[in-house]
Amino acid sequence: MDATREEHIDFKNFLPHREPMLMVSKLVSISETDVHTEFAITSDCIFVKNNQLSETGLIENAAQSCSAIVGQSYFEKDDLTGEGNKLVGYISAIKKVEIFSLPALNATITTKATLVSRYDTGSVTMCSIDCSTFNNDELIVACTLNFLIHEVA
């Protein structure tokens, strides 16, 4: 995907999630194997507890960011609105997760993910993705997640 397209993509159009479950604010960059997103932590986020983003919120942010890598392949290149398809994705396994610290309310975290493996069965894609989340330049989450992603009618 080129930089011009990334600037015009409304990420939420490509995810089944809606407020208050949407955990990605901005798509910074995306390729066939990598994604870089940002999430601004606001007081109305359902995963904020004691003025920090909870562990559950961090995992959900990672999962939504990761799903974009494989999910984008289900859409045409010129589909900037996400109207060409509907997807469902599931975390099939959390292979590893390390949470080093919880980011504070009003912070903006950065999540970067890389595709490790992908297997397409025709109707379902199974994949494994490594993901790291940062608060400023500090690593706060390192995880490997497995997903099942498929089209729905």
**Envelope shape:** globular
Which homologous superfamily in CATH is the superfamily?
Hotdog Thioesterase
Element-by-element helix/strand order = HEEEEHEEEE
Give the total of domains: 1
Runs in which pLDDT lies below 50 for 5 or more consecutive residues are 1-5
- Global Rg: 15 Å
User: Can you give the mean pLDDT?
Assistant: 84
In CATH's first tier, which class applies?
A: Alpha Beta
The end-to-end span amounts to 26 Å
* Number of H- or I-type helical stretches: 2
Q: What is the second-level CATH architecture?
A: Roll
According to CATH, the fold-level topology is: Thiol Ester Dehydrase, Chain A
InterPro entries: ApeP-like_dehydratase, HotDog_dom_sf
Pfam family, one: ApeP-like
Description:
With 153 residues, this protein is of the alpha+beta class. The protein has one domain (3-151): Hotdog Thioesterase (Thiol Ester Dehydrase, Chain A, Roll), CATH 3.10.129. The protein is built from two helices and eight strands. The chain has helices spanning 3-8, 55-71; strands spanning 26-30, 34-40, 48-49, 52-53, 87-99, 108-120, 124-135, 138-151. The strands form two sheets. It has a six-stranded antiparallel sheet. It has a two-stranded antiparallel ribbon with strand order 3-4. A hairpin with a 3-residue loop joins strand 6 and strand 7. The longest helix has 17 residues, at 55-71. It starts with a helix and ends with a strand. Residues 1-5 have low confidence and may be disordered. InterPro entries: ApeP-like_dehydratase, HotDog_dom_sf. Pfam families: ApeP-like.
